Amino acid sequence: MVLKRRAMYQAVTAACLTGLIPLVAQGQTGDESKKSAQGLEVIVVTAQKREQSIQTVPLALAVIDGDEILDRGIFSSNDIQRLAPGLSGQQSGFSRPRWFIRGIGSNDPNLTTESPLGVYNDEVFTALTSLQSFPIFDLERVEVLRGPQGTLWGKNTTAGAVNYISRKPDFETSGYVRASAGDWGSKGLQGGLGGAINESTAGRISFFHQSYDGYAKNLLTGKDGPAFEENALRVQLLTNVTDNFTALFNVHFLKSEPGANYAYQVHSEAGGADRYGFTPDYGTNPKAGDAYYAGESDNVTDTEGALVKLDWSLGDYTLTSISAYDESVNTSKSFSGNQPTFVGERDNTSTWGETDSKQISQEIRLVSPQTSALSWIAGLHYFRYTFAQDAASATFSPSSRSNYTRTWRDQDSESFAAFGSIKYEFTEKFRLNAGLRWTEEEKDINIHTVRTPTGSTTFNNVSSWWQLSALDTPFNYNQNVFENRSWRELTGDITPEYQITDETLLYFRYARGYRSGGFGSTIPTLNAQQIAAGVAPYIPVVEPEFLDSWELGSKSTFLDGALNVNATVFYYDHKDIQLNVQAPNPLNLINPPSGSFAQNASQGEVTGFELETQWQITDNLRLNAAWSLVDAEYVDFYPILSVSGVTGVVDRSGNKYFRTPKHQVTLDLEYRIPLDGGSNIILSTDWVYRSHQYYDAARQGLAQGEVARDVNGVVHQYGWQEQGGYWLGNTRAAWQTADEKIEYFVEVKNLADENYVVNATAASPSYPVSLGQPRFVQAGVTVKF
């Protein structure tokens, strides 16, 4: 049996290396085509827009199988960070994930922000970072590409790309249902069913539901929170129009209703008291699950879209067209109120907002066969997205702080790209890959902001206070500003690779990527000196950032295909970095002169090393392990900081990249225990270690709780904007029937109940600190058919 597996592994690998046969049809799940010697899977990816074994792709990437995602109870787009080495997607409550790979990412939550990491659903780019948190279900796999993607992928990015690939319709009937329940009143139900509709058409329908009541008591409402609910549906049809022409249709819907995006307020007065004398029970050291204080909120996002993928076989060539349209509508309201131990006259505030977004994309590419020494890919890509946001905020009491602000934002972004990649096989062992991408982008934005004078604002209808008709006070600020920018850029990569042996590939990759420019989300408030100098209201513009990457990697297979060992050494030259610089507001001003805004304030250098192994130790024991070492430092970092109205340039050169632990370790272990009668007990656990990291680029170096004063004597407690090293682990136990159709399971997330900070913002005058979720236990059953 071992000899048979070994022969099959060698034959499949050799065929893939020479390009003589396609490895596996996309979506095929048969064990005969995926198992190698000792049972290690031959993983098929499309990271380079054609089917290849992961061990033959000269690129640092990770793949998470869809069945593994299902088995481990991974339901959120960012939660794949559990199994993807070097990826971080930390999330504050239910806000968008803060994606980081090798130190490259963004902490900016504004809609105008261009993400440095490309998030794709079935090869379709998701433009708005606010929509990059979504449920994942009935997937074939997820591919995580590390390093700049400036050639083949739909949007030029500096960090990398994550592609979520749905399970496609098949002409054989298959499906599954997974039901679970657990802590916090949680309920989960998902499933998929597909098969032939007629001789030429197959379909698949997939659904998802997840909800829970929350794990901490909201002292204002008396309810547990933050509550959460998501419902999603995906319907696909695959039809063979002719013998050489297939069409895939995909329509999808999502409704997300997150509760209040709570944060623990860590106040700056002695013992953690606020300026009114109120001290929360947790004092200065909150833990996830502690009772908290937050107002009520309503937040609903409806997303829907459609995709059409057409494939023509033109002889040995393949022409592919991917057309997609997506839109979303978000409505939100939040209300504050007074804390339970009311002392003094507190702020009574509310916010309201509506956001509509739309995006359309079209890609056409032609792929040559891999049967000759020269192979290539060429294509065109068009992308456009727009959003319109209407947002208001108001303070009703105390009367001395009463105010009203409303802002309308409209942005239109359009890009066009032409790309091509070639690969030439000089000898059986030496090959050269090279690619170029020409991108043209244009963006325009209009921001209109109105305000009433602080301390003299009154309302004639508080129930609909956000409407202009509800005001009894005229505006003292009314600015409408338009801005437009366009950029053109040539990027690409070149990768020589050398097949040392049939089991070892060595490659060098140079790649250049860029992150599109953009705009600030607000019209800055001008100070007296600027007004006197005749400075006109403006919208800040952020120019593109660039990243040049040099990478040396190897991919090796040992033990007759039972062990894969991949290693990478890389260096980044990072220029014109778009950084979200936080400006504290210790005086709690209504309209501070500045806030959190993006600046091209720094250059940077990143060096790193990555080591990954996948080892099928025995037929029943599998281990995946990875270690990444990243040393990332800002160079020539001179951000503009504004504190209490005093604005100036400061030197922060030498600071470490934020949200970038120097060490990250990933461990994933699964052990199967065969029982009499053919059933199995399956035990699995996965752990991630992240060393110390900062959450702010400009303010670093103080221990948690330590205070410092700036040149104006203002106290800052920067220590909350960092997190020490910690392990985060999950475990699972399951009993599987002999036919592998039914599986009963118990899962525990955050097994050690680790308390850790995922985000903290500058004092205003309190630190809003967001913590990771506490331990979560659930049980359920999965039925496959």
CATH-wise, what's the superfamily? TonB-dependent receptor, beta-barrel domain
Q: So how many helices?
A: 4
Q: Return the structural class.
A: mainly beta
| Global outline | globular
| CATH fold type | Maltoporin, Chain A
Note poorly predicted spans.
1-37, 585-594, 703-717
Corresponding CATH architecture: Beta Barrel
* Spatial gap, N to C terminus: 28 Å
What is the helix fraction of residues, given as a range?
under 10%
Sheet having the most strands:
22 strands, antiparallel, barrel
Mean model confidence by pLDDT: 87
Total beta-strand segments: 45
Beta percentage is over 45%
Family: Belongs to the TonB-dependent receptor family.
Signal peptide: 1-27
Region (Disordered): 336-355
GO cellular component, one term: cell outer membrane
